[in-house]
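For reproducibility, we list the full input for the magnesium ion complex.
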Amino acid sequence: MTSPVERVSLTHLQIPLKETVRIGGADMGLKDAILLIVESRDGIGLGECSPSAARGCESLESCWKELTERIAPSLLGRSFSSTEEIGKLADTWTGGHCAKAGAETACWDLLGHARHATIAELLGASSDQLDMNIESGLTLGLYPTVVELLKTIENHLEEGYRRVKIEVEPGRDVELVRAVRQHFGDIPLMIDAAAAYSVNDIDIFRELDDYDLLMFEQPMAADDFEGLAALQAAVTTPVCLDETATTVERTAEAIRRGACRIVSLKLQNLGGFGPALAVHDLCYQNGVACWVGTTPELGVGSAQGIHLAALGNCRYATDIEPSPRWFVDDCIVPLIEHSGPGVLSVPTRPGLGYQIDHSKLKRYQVRHTEVVAGASHPF
Ligand SMILES: [Mg+2]
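The corresponding predicted structure, in tokenized form, follows.
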């Protein structure tokens, strides 16, 4: 059992990306996230609220408001003896899933410390899985030219990544896939369409079906179950849900309608470890494989994803990449790094297994507030 929560510190961080990238229809040059530190007498828990810059996602402002005004105060005085107890409190939080994920994951870290268990162990990963390396995939946004795309892939492939994912959009799809195949041969390759197509585009996917891709990630709009199912029936390449998979109910509906064969689990989309575990288990029961996607998060969120990726039904490479891949810096110690060519190790220290570098937290801080019993102190 954790000691009662005495203080919740929230820091809005902004860390520049190494280059501006185009992901999900949005240009991203700065990464905004909210780092939560939940403190009790005998430990701290780290959480990250990390909205994606992509279209249709929660804004950082709404997350900040939700976390500082409602969620953080609700944590004060609470202690947890199980992940189910954390889930019960999280179910009372209204608002978006990114804000929930920030607080819920911090509570899991706190509980891990109290129990001397890693988060992967709390999730129920078996000892075999904990020892296994997590395969790390290279993820690329849209580039202005094919040459730049190929050059970027070439620069990173020598780091040992286990698969390559490229973003496509209408008008820039088959050409990109063909170029990557011609240049790199039969590397494990997939595309992310970031919900940019409709049922009228099925012929494009029929053409893409010939390129032996691992999957088509979110080819159509999040709620277009009918279109996704029509596509899955028309192609042999598995359709993978990303934006659609925000709750157990939606994922179950998509599976029932034949709209996917793979699901990307994102802690930020789902609202934390509890819902992610529930979707993972639902997929397992239905013969649907999973893997762990990213927004991409900073180090705390990335480390969380590594624990999640240790679950047995996570059967494809994760989008989690080493800290220096996207960002000029990070505020966790140690940084996320490949432990071997293209693989990540599941942390073995209790809880999340990472610490915060407080000097860096200060360096990249935009604003900070602390919620303690009876008062809120912005400074
Ligand atoms: Mg995606």
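The pocket of magnesium ion is lined by residues 192, 194, 217-218, 242 (CB under 6 Å). The longest strand covers residues 5-23. Both points were considered when choosing residues for closer inspection.
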